[in-house]
Amino acid sequence: MKTYIDYLFKSLAVLILILVSISCNEEEWLEENPLDFYSPENSYITQDDFNSAVARLYQGVDEAFYTVYTSEGRAMHYPTDVAIDAIDLTHALNSYKDKLFPNTSQVQNMWRRLYRIVFDANVIVERIDSEVVEINSEEDRNELKAEATFIRAFVYRSLTILYGGVPLILEEITSPKRDFTRATRDAVLDQCISDLDFASKNLPDVTNVKEEGRLCKAAAFHLLTEVYLMKQEWDNAISAATTVIDNSNFSLMTERFGTRKDEPGDVYWDLFRRDNQNRSSGNTEGIWVNQFEYLVEGGGTSTGWPRFLAPLYWQLKDTDGVNLFIGPSNHNGGRGIGWYAPTHYMRTEIWDDYDNDMRNSQYNIIRDIKADNPESQYYGQYIVASGAIDDFPNKLDRWWNMLFVKTIPINNWPDEYILDPETGLTTNSANETMTEDYIFRLAETYLLRAEAYLGKGDQANAAANINIVRARVNAAPVSAADVDIDYILDERARELCWEELRLLTLMRLGKLVERVRKYNHLTLDNILDHQNLWPIPAREIETNTEAELTQNPGYF
Fold this sequence. Notes:
mainly alpha, CATH 1.25.40.390, 20 helices
């Protein structure tokens, strides 16, 4: 019995020692060691890990802004001075005063998407300097960090344009947080400048980027130009833009180039043909190009411009009720559904006296097409000129307006999309651009510098910069006396339509309400004075229970 009792006491003593030891290292004992799933602790270790994380940032920017398959992506272009939602006045955001509220899906989804990118960028910036991270060189570490800070700045610039002052989050959030407050607009812009300063010093020159589509120094200076414009620091904006413009690796394209240079067309047309956006095509104008690879896994999502902007021409009937077209076709832009339509301003007003402007040539804007259905009495005739369609242009925003060729691979759909090579009939899937898209292009840098010169009252230099862009397309020069901010907005519409995020441009300049009322023939006065800003999403205010996240004026 004594032996058993001794054994029992010894066992208890050992157990107590173990428990004491465990209790002294409770945090270590409870710490998870994931072996068969990803966690922050094992997902950010190698250079490949961080490359993947940075790639997700690029993807986030694409999904938030540059695909018109999402309602918030489409909202970057309508209702503005250049586009309407052609379904009807009550559809989506056409009537701002009836549709733009704190619980509107576009308002909430864009906020969520952009702060998701901020979160991901913060994780990269915070974790990449850890001692456990395996990076090949300090240069590689800083370059990856610079991509993350650039994209964080790009997103915060967008957030403050859309919502005004917003919560400024610069660290990884690892636990529930319900006490966000709004930083001032200037504080957000100052952080953008700080992030872009780091990016401009650590991103590679454009000739040394590791892959096409990745950021270079020039992209940082281009974005810095815009941020300085927002702060009305005109000289700093001029200096940043000049850094890009004076870089010998960049120039406006003035000669035919690329995959279809031997076909009828012009150099502006060449800029938007398949596979012509990257430097490998000979293009020295693209600064930051959103990438797409056809039939490549992980090759990205082609934008839906042909689907949403190209009209429903293939459903048109002639005056006898007979179909004018055999269906969507290779030569007419594929299967558009006409959700977008250009405003009268975009169709005609900005093109008055612009017959020689290359951007308005038959290659770049198609205003009439031929009926191709042999059963129609108008077969082979232009549908507008012949009178085959009634009441044009008053009732046909969605079914016919014009084709902006920069958004459509006319006569260039992949073979898989062609049902009948003889007639050009396409499948119903012929509704994507099938190519890369510009995010920043040098022509815009000139127009931003013009805006900076105008801001400091130098109309002569503003006109000189605009005229460099106009000279490339054979447009008559503008006189200095005619340059104001509205003229620059007109020129941006001519040069950058469907590339620039027009909503952000107008909101940045405080011109959205004014120009929608003046030029948007559907929305007109259905926009309220305070709607140059979007509301803070209701969901964010309601769940922020430990501090006040104030709403923008005019919204409840």
